[in-house]
Design a protein that fits this description.
Structural class of chain C: mainly alpha
Distance between the termini of chain C: 50 Å
Strand order of the largest sheet of chain A: 2-1-3-4-5
Strand content of chain C: under 5%
CATH class of the largest domain in chain A: Alpha Beta
Radius of gyration of chain C: 20 Å
Keywords (chain C): Cell membrane, Membrane, Transmembrane, Transmembrane helix
Chains: A alpha/beta (389), B mainly alpha (294), C mainly alpha (347)
CATH architecture of the largest domain in chain A: 3-Layer(aba) Sandwich
Oligomer: heterotrimer
GO cellular component, one term (chain C): plasma membrane
Number of strands of chain C: 4
Membrane topology (chain C): Multi-pass membrane protein
Strand content of chain A: 15-25%
Strand order of the largest sheet of chain C: 1-4
Number of domains of chain C: 1
GO molecular function, one term (chain C): branched-chain amino acid transmembrane transporter activity
Largest sheet of chain A: 5 strands, parallel
Number of helices of chain A: 12
Structural class of chain A: alpha/beta
Number of strands of chain A: 14
Order of helices and strands of chain C: HHHHHHHEEEHHHHEHHHH
CATH topology of the largest domain in chain A: Rossmann fold
Subcellular location (chain C): Cell membrane
Chain lengths: 389, 294, 347
């Protein structure tokens, strides 16, 4: 008896203690802080998305509070690390919704974690702005779901558009097997015909792979490949880039918006010269023309972020988090409060907001609000980003 | 050279590049297993520590050689601490309990590094530049030669150590029969400590050698640890040469699989081959057949 | 050369426990049986009955239901690791496979959830049976590698075949329907999973006390000795391997319908490691230890989430500390303590 009795006691005790049942969450009052909930992949394979996103949210919410808060109310950030795991994301979003009773949810670094929680958010009717790239998040449109980054579909379109200008028609794809690579690969396959592009080789690599020479050799020996597109994030694209150089493979190499930070150039070294990628203007902040309306936004964010986290540390990923926070701020100000339905409507009515990703104009059937023109085609020259005219 | 041959050679070299990395990591598993019969699932974290510490020390202003030396020394300290503080107090526990302790240690080390050194990826400079070396029309990077060369040296050094030094022989004796070794005057506690120190050193060296190829971050050890474990098992546990052959084979299967069959399924193919080998050789390629005493 | 003095089993602890059990008088044994099968189970049921009084919202239910689902897997895995002494680092593969069979059959082919679940269990059972003989010929770390390989291959196939499984981003699963009514929400799932867990524990306790269980304990002591005594060790090992795989698959199916979402992380290597850790932390060869292990390791991340960056540091420290202080796991160590205390108090 003792055996099981002890077990039972501990089981009950643990459950009660751990769930924090002692302190039921207090009801919201008018001057209580606004509660911003967030779930990001701060660790795990997508940590280089989640890490700058969280840093940005923390930094800007602190600034917001220093300057008097939002509509005169302080802003609290409640964050949980999903490690990129969709199952964890679901539990944490339930926690945000039911336990922390947040007023808005910002985040979801990856398409997988975002898609997993959409039914929960829709049911709870809480505004949700995702920082993930997949087009499936906003197509079809879900009433409560918005997102800030360009879609992977747009990245493919931008790349193929650039290829048209260079008379490239036969293209090889190499993509990571993670969610990002897999999704972008599918989108590229999908839109290629509309740009008169033929995918003649299609290879993949795993998340921890140390060498992609075999796949690239196969691509190199494929008849008539005129360019290579690499869909992936993390260190994989850097290894691909170095391996392409090692093989003396000279066709143009296109990377995705998944490598849009200085880190990529640092990791790939000299091999990165001449690589092109579609990215937000943030990366070339200082190179934008003085009269570019986006210039003050991106120069400001870059300076703020790098002042804390070091020269060259800014990435478009952190920018997506800033855009999400600012969109919510704008919506609360427009709605005159945090009432969920009003904020949702205000988000949908966002007109001409200038963010790090570009100018955002949302509508009932566009919960992204970015055009293809907001994407810039960049080329790496002399270890730095350059705008391709 | 006919193009088909050059292509094959390129696949082979690519496989050897990855394989040499798996081999070095696998060697660390083999070493600790030899002395303690423990599979140290924190071995991948030693690899990570080597790379991350070298990067951290270099960005603190140290030269590459100095940073390498210090990083290896620090990782060895971590290995010794792991044995002294976590393995030794639980020495009489089950093997599986010890494994859980090493898993906990791995999580702990990842946590400490992410908190102190951050979560970013970092590169190290290649030791001998980035100009590919041409071999009969195929190419290999000089850094890969470093990995291969050091692996070979380490295997030779370990063989000499186990065969000709008293210390090495004590480790072997402990691996065969701990109680008998103790009766023969071997300080078993010290041997265990030594084996953790040595394999931490191997792990750190692996981590430093490969960082210029793959870059390093706090979680780089998870998959490398897995591959290293697979290499050690494929070769036959407790056999240094086995771990090297196992690692190289693993790399070559992956790369030939990616090249000739499907890059989507190259990892799966590697595990299918391992399963196949184990079904016919239940102690790996070079492992001794064990007999059980009743 | 006799390379290893240790028996082929992974756990020498279970053997010791067996000795104490065998040496007890018949009457003592009857009492123990009463305690484990009667007392333990009724206490578990009591806790399950009372617990909902303390669950305030869907998040609480989510955590508790996940505990229950993990516990079902771990109770099965404990039979394999704790009693048969065979390690498996691939059980998340079976768990994930069960989840995906349910997900794919219901979402893509319109099969009823209550049909998909047994189909998944049967399929996993057949797969486990097919691989069991060659895999279980291996021992120790080689067995660990083989099961790890099986799990990884399942994980890779699930991640790659996106047309069927949705790939790395996962897929939605329609809610379970019973007589035309969708089963949705924490409270309903609480009772479903609670029922399944009670069934799993009852099954486990019965297996342990059956002739199979006795044969298994023989296995864990010495396989050669058991064989010499005429026990068909392989057959029993295969049986318990298949049973534990099927239990994992059923838990996977339940998880898929409960979450209404599946992703390949359910089948990942790290998930397998987590299941094994639950068994060992709770206490090998103890059914209620398995349950407690599931409780601990499902709750811990929720508790530690508040520590943000330090979550992993603390989790690693707790795992090490518990295993060093209580190498036999929580429940067996605590039971021994309480027993000693009771004995002292009695004398």
């Amino acid at each position: 008896m003792t055996h099981s009795f002890k077990t039972g006691l501990m089981l009950a005790g643990l459950a009660l203690g751990a769930l924090g049942l002692a302190d039921p969450s207090p009801a919201h009052a008018e001057d209580d802080p606004i509660r911003v909930g967030s779930f990001l992949a701060v660790t795990g394979p997508a940590s280089f998305l989640g890490d700058p996103e969280l840093k940005t949210l923390e930094m800007y919410i602190e600034r917001l509070n220093e300057s008097g808060g939002l509509n005169g109310r302080a802003v609290d950030l409640v964050h949980y690390d999903t490690a990129g795991d969709a199952n964890k994301a679901r539990t944490f979003v339930k926690r945000l919704l039911e336990e922390d009773e947040v007023d808005v949810i910002l985040g979801g670094s990856t398409t997988g974690t975002t898609m997993a929680v959409i039914p929960l958010v829709e049911r709870a009717e809480v505004p949700f702005v995702s920082f993930a790239g997949g087009v499936s998040i906003i197509d079809p449109v879900k009433p409560w779901v918005f997102k800030t980054p360009h879609t992977d579909r747009m990245a493919c379109e931008k790349i193929f558009e650039d290829m048209q200008g260079r008379d490239i028609t036969r293209v090889a794809l190499i993509s990571g097997t993670g969610g990002f690579g897999k999704s972008m690969r599918g989108q590229c396959m999908d839109v290629a015909p509309t740009f008169g592009i033929e995918i003649v080789a299609d290879e993949t690599y795993g998340p921890g792979d140390t060498d992609m020479v075999a796949q690239l050799t196969k691509i190199k020996n494929t008849e008539g490949v005129e360019a290579v597109v690499n869909a992936g994030f993390g260190q994989g694209p850097a290894i691909v880039t170095k391996n392409v150089a090692q093989l003396g493979f000279t066709v143009p190499l296109y990377q995705s918006h998944g490598v849009a930070s200085k880190k990529f150039i640092e990791l790939a070294g000299d091999a990165a010269e001449g690589v092109r990628l579609p990215a937000a203007a943030l990366l070339v902040a200082e190179k934008l023309p003085m009269d570019d309306p986006q210039r003050p936004v991106v120069v400001g964010y870059k300076a703020t972020y790098e002042a804390v986290h070091g020269e060259g540390s800014v990435s478009t990923f952190g920018g997506h988090a800033l855009d999400g926070l600012m969109l919510y701020k704008g919506a609360v100000e427009a709605a005159g409060g945090i009432e969920p339905a009003a904020v949702r409507d205000a988000l949908e009515n966002t007109r001409g907001y200038m963010g790090t990703a570009g100018e955002v104009t949302m509508s009932a059937d566009d919960h992204l609000g970015l055009g293809l023109s907001a994407f810039r085609m960049l080329e790496i020259r002399d270890g730095d980003w350059a705008l391709v005219e | 050279m006919p193009p088909a041959f050059v292509e094959f050679l390129q696949f082979l070299l690519s496989g050897i590049t990855s394989g040499a990395i798996y081999a070095l990591v696998g060697l660390g598993f083999a070493l600790i297993y030899n002395a303690s019969h423990v599979i140290n699932f924190a071995q991948g974290e030693f690899v990570m520590l080597g790379g991350m510490l070298t990067w951290a020390l270099m960005s603190a202003g140290l030269d590459l050689p100095l940073a390498i030396g210090a990083a290896v020394a620090l990782t060895v300290l971590a290995g010794l601490a792991l044995e002294k503080l976590a393995i030794e107090p639980a020495r009489d526990a089950d093997v599986v309990t010890l494994i859980i302790i090493t898993i906990g240690a791995g999580i702990f080390l990842r946590g400490v590094v992410s908190v102190t050194l951050g979560k970013d990826f970092h590169p190290l400079p290649s030791f001998s530049g980035d100009d590919p070396i041409s071999v009969l029309g195929a190419t290999i990077m000089p850094q890969s030669l470093w990995v291969l060369g050091v692996s070979a040296l380490v295997v030779i050094a370990l063989q000499l150590f186990f065969r000709y030094t008293l210390l090495g022989k004590s480790i072997l004796a402990t691996s065969y029969n701990r109680d008998a070794a103790r009766l023969m005057g071997v300080n078993v506690g010290f041997v265990l400590l030594l084996s953790f120190g040595l394999s931490a050193m191997l792990g750190a060296m692996a981590g430093i050698l490969i960082a210029p190829i793959t870059a390093t971050n706090f979680e780089v050890g998870i998959i490398l640890g897995l591959k290293g474990f697979a290499a050690a098992i494929l070769g036959g546990l407790g056999n240094g040469l086995g771990a090297i052959v196992g690692g190289l084979l693993l790399g070559i299967i992956e790369s030939l699989g990616a090249g000739y069959i499907s890059s989507d399924y190259k990892d799966a193919m590697a595990f299918v081959v391992i399963l196949g080998v184990l079904f016919f050789m239940p102690s790996g390629l070079f492992g001794r057949r064990r007999t059980e005493r009743v | 050369m006799a390379h290893n003095v240790r028996p082929s089993g992974y756990s020498k602890f279970a053997k010791k426990q067996t000795y104490t059990r065998r040496m007890g008088t018949k009457k003592n044994r009857a009492q123990m049986l009463l305690s484990e099968r009667g007392g333990g189970l009724s206490l578990l049921i009591l806790v399950i009955l009372v617990l909902p009084l303390f669950l305030a919202n869907n998040y609480h239910y989510d955590v508790v239901v996940n505990i229950g689902i993990n516990a079902i897997v771990v109770v099965g895995l404990n039979l394999l690791i704790g009693h048969a002494g065979q390690i498996s680092l691939g059980h998340a593969g079976f768990f994930g496979l069960g989840a995906y069979v349910s997900a794919v059959l219901t979402a893509r082919y319109g099969v009823h959830g209550l049909v998909a679940l047994p189909v998944g269990a049967l399929g996993v059972g057949i797969l486990a049976y097919a691989i069991a003989r060659p895999v279980l010929r291996l021992s120790g770390h080689y067995l660990a590698m083989a099961t790890l390989g099986v799990g990884l291959i399942i994980h890779i196939v699930i991640s790659r075949e996106a047309w069927l499984t949705g790939g790395p981003d996962g897929m939605y699963v329609p809610p379970l329907e019973v007589m035309g009514v969708a089963v949705y929400g924490g409270p309903v799932w609480y009772w479903i999973v609670a029922g399944a867990l009670i069934l799993a524990v009852w099954l486990s306790l019965n297996v342990i006390d059956s002739p199979v269980g006795r044969a298994l304990r023989g296995l864990n002591g010495s396989e050669v000795a058991a064989q010499a005594a005429g026990v068909d060790t392989t057959r029993y090992k295969v049986m318990v391997f298949v049973l534990s795989a099927v239990m994992a698959a059923v838990a996977g199916s339940l998880a898929a319908h409960f979450s209404e979402f599946v992703s390949p992380t359910k089948a990942s290597f790290l998930q397998s490691i987590l299941f094994v850790t639950m068994v060992v932390l709770g206490g090998m060869a103890s059914t209620f230890g398995a349950v407690l292990g599931a409780v601990m390791l499902t709750l811990l991340p929720q508790v530690l989430a508040d520590f943000a960056d330090y979550e992993q540091v603390i989790l690693g420290l707790i795992m090490m500390a518990v295993m060093i202080a209580l190498p036999k796991g929580l429940v067996p160590t605590l039971t021994a303590l309480v027993k000693r205390w009771v004995r002292r108090a009695g004398s």
